[in-house]
Please model this.
Amino acid sequence: MRIQLTNTLSRSKEVFEPADAGRVTLYVCGPTVYNYAHIGNARPPVVFDTLFRLLRRTYGDSAVIYARNYTDIDDKIIAAAQAAGQPIEAITEKFRVIYEQDMGALGVLPPTLAPRATQHVDDMIALIEKLIEAGAAYAVPSGVYFAVAKDADYGKLSGRSQDELRAGARVEGEDDKQGPSDFALWKAAKPGEPAWDAPFGRGRPGWHIECSAMIESALGSPIDIHGGGLDLIFPHHENEIAQSESAHGRALARVWMHNGFLTMDKEKMSKSIGNIVTVNELLAQGWQGETIRWALLSAHYRAPLDWSDDLLKQAQASLDRLYQVLRDADYDRLDEDLHDEGESHYPVGSNQVDDIIKPFLSALSDDLNTPRALAELNELAKAVRDATGATAEDDPQGDVRSRLMLTTAALRSAASLLGILQSDPNDWFRRGMDTSKIDALVAQRVEARKAKDFAASDRIRDQLAAMGVEVMDSASGSTWRRK
Ligand code: AMP
Ligand code: ZN
Model:
């Protein structure tokens, strides 16, 4: 199915054609690791993870190379390390690990490559040298700057004119730069700050040059897709383009994609405003990762998304409905049967699944229309529900059962592209329950039954029922589920 994506550069929705279908390249600007990611920061990784999943399905798992970097050197990191009285590496390592855990909880697949800025300083220095040689950059005492006035193309992504840019804000300590909108490629070393030796003086890289160097080193250019949040179009992505294209004389990326803002009470969620909710705290409050993910995907990625508790509650209710459908279909049993009897017995071929999930795929392929894709999941769930409940007697040919297997496989397959419905339905409904206590009571009850102490067994059953737990006894033992 052909994928269409909105390209910020052309300002239009285009059919996506990778330069090489055997090597599709995607780069997304990753986090600056100095504190907890808020739910707005989680929007780009979740959106582009969904794109990553779609690309993998379309071109093959090993054909898609996705790089998402870590910015582990930056003013804010230096300030955070100084405030905490800790070395920079202690801060960046701590928050990198937390970020990976948070993203893992949201079902974000690890990207193929996760370059860290500090591991690519040599590449940045080489790129800056190239820009100086080409006359696109110049060195002055406070650092090395990109000469915006010499770049006729500058502004093509954001649509800003050089005149508008001349009114750019002044940055403290950059008084010796030649043009007001020239930006730092390299900042001269300051006491107490980390610094690297370079031919143009000791110092540290500017933020924009990090991505240009990492893209070139990790993926080579032009890459197929470059993504990030809307706030990165200017100046970050504009500057990435200016640097890379001036140095290499070829495009940096063919398609530029930008997600809209996550807001709270219609205001952009941001650390500087202070209106933030972190992923970490939402998980600690007991919200499941899939619920948060559903909420993030409930709006089209280019549209704003207003975050609220109600949004999370709706997402949870939607997932509850779908998991209920899977639980009623007794997916575990189907899964085991499939495993035992082989696919030939119940023909759940991938072609048939593809056929059933076509409307879903066409929604997702239409510029990643996740709200429509989520609605299509409900249609797929309806088909599962219709096939649920037939018994062997009223289905002698096994047709209804085959249908149940096929529709269930289709629902799971479609949902996996969104990174949801990946849990066991029973586990899903066990959220917030004291499972170790319940397991212990179920085990005690098994012992009581063995000892033929039925009064005790019944008492424990009642106790479990009061906790919302239903016990199911079978020849092989006892299991439980939320009622
Ligand atoms: P920052 O920590 O501000 O550098 O942001 C890291 C990433 O999160 C960037 O891709 C930003 O575009 C993105 N981002 C930050 N705030 C929001 C928000 N409120 N909504 C959507 N994306 C955001
Ligand atoms: Zn970047």
